[in-house]
Specification:
48% of the residues lie in helices and 19% in strands. The protein has 346 residues and is an alpha+beta fold. A five-stranded antiparallel β-sheet has the order 7-3-10-9-8, with helices on both faces. A three-stranded antiparallel β-sheet has the order 4-5-6, with helices on one face.
């Protein structure tokens, strides 16, 4: 990257100082200020000439309202690829991340905790994709009578994915009848892929002579909805309001579009999917994401694994002036600790 732009050491150093200053203060950096920040024994004219060179290369730009310069997406990319010195993660931050992965948590709890801790430590928006490539396997089911014609279906899918669903039935069932229905379904479903087990059960349902047969179709329909939902990729987010502290993201239209992207999820899931083969932390700066809604944002993502297979990507979204040297190690260690915690839960 350095060869592409043919920058000498002094130009690279000044670009680095400009980016550090803009990341910290969110203010365009003028040549006089940059001279003071750099500590170089050169004239202001020399600084101006170098800044003009950096601008002609597309690494910095001049906002219309200021004589100072700000980094462009290309400038940030050059900085990350060639100039960035990643900080060591402090012991307190490492402990905070480690402590959030308690042994008493389900897989869903661990993923939510990871999103929360990413947001808390970086003051950005934490994002985690969940890729459910494996078929839904029923591990446990039971029924609980809530009222005369309302029954709670409690279903555990795969390792510890717990779902509750209230169904409405055409008559009142006793606790004994519900127990019998749960036993009947368990014989067909427990330990099996729900889709194939359901087909067999439906074929044989007409042959089952039992007072609880009439409840079966309602239960199976509810279970099918749950298993179908659990088979879809999903996105967990935390700390969306953190973005309000960054002036460049507070335009109402930008915020509306960005929050819509969080709600609709599709574009973000596709973007994170591009990180699944990354060796460490992948970074998309502004327009690199390919989505106009993220043109003023950077997305950092790292894959996490179970049994050596990538099952999702975690990371953060924030303005392009993220303190990359601080955020990269947070994303990296969180991905590793989440992988370890999920494997321990198996």
């Amino acid at each position: 990257m350095a060869e592409k732009y043919e920058l000498d050491q002094r130009a690279q150093y000044l670009l680095k100082q400009l980016i550090i200053s803009y990341t910290r203060d969110a203010q365009p950096v003028g040549s006089k200020n940059l001279a003071e920040l750099s500590g170089l024994d050169v004239s202001s004219a020399t600084i101006r000439n170098i800044m003009s060179r950096l601008e002609s290369l597309g690494l910095i730009d001049s906002p219309h309202t200021s004589a100072g310069r700000i980094p462009t997406d290309a400038g940030y990319r050059f900085f990350i690829d060639s100039l960035l010195e990643v900080n060591d993660l402090g012991s307190s931050a490492r402990k905070a991340i480690s402590d959030c992965f308690g042994t008493d948590k389900t897989s869903n709890d661990l993923i939510q905790s990871a999103s929360d801790i990413l947001s808390s430590i970086t003051h950005l928006t934490g994002i985690i994709s969940l890729t459910h490539s494996a078929p839904a396997e029923i591990r446990h089911l039971e029924f609980m009578r809530l009222s005369e014609r309302r029954i709670l279906v409690i279903l555990v899918i795969n390792q510890d994915d717990v779902h509750n669903k209230v169904i409405h039935v055409d008559r009142e069932y006793s606790d004994l009848e519900l127990h019998q229905a749960a036993q009947t379904l368990s014989r067909y479903l427990i330990g099996r892929d729900f889709a194939s087990a359901r087909n067999q059960l439906m074929e044989e349902l007409s042959e089952l002579r039992s007072d609880v047969n009439s409840i079966m179709e309602s239960v199976l329909k509810a279970m099918e909805e749950i298993c179908t939902d659990s088979g879809q990729d999903d996105l967990v987010t935390s700390g969306e309001s953190n973005l309000l502290q960054y002036a460049e993201l507070t335009d109402i239209n930008k915020l509306r579009n960005l929050f819509n992207a969080f709600n609709e999820k599709t574009d973000l899931l596709k973007l994170l999917d591009g990180c699944t083969s990354a060796d460490g932390v992948e970074i998309f700066i502004g327009s690199e994401s390919g989505y106009s809604v993220l043109s003023d944002c950077s997305v950092l993502g790292a894959p996490y694994q179970v049994d050596g297979t990538v099952v999702g990507v975690l990371g953060v979204i924030g303005p392009t002036r993220i303190a990359y040297e601080q955020v990269i190690p947070v994303v990296d260690i969180t991905a590793k600790l989440l992988s370890s915690a999920l494997n321990t839960r198996k």
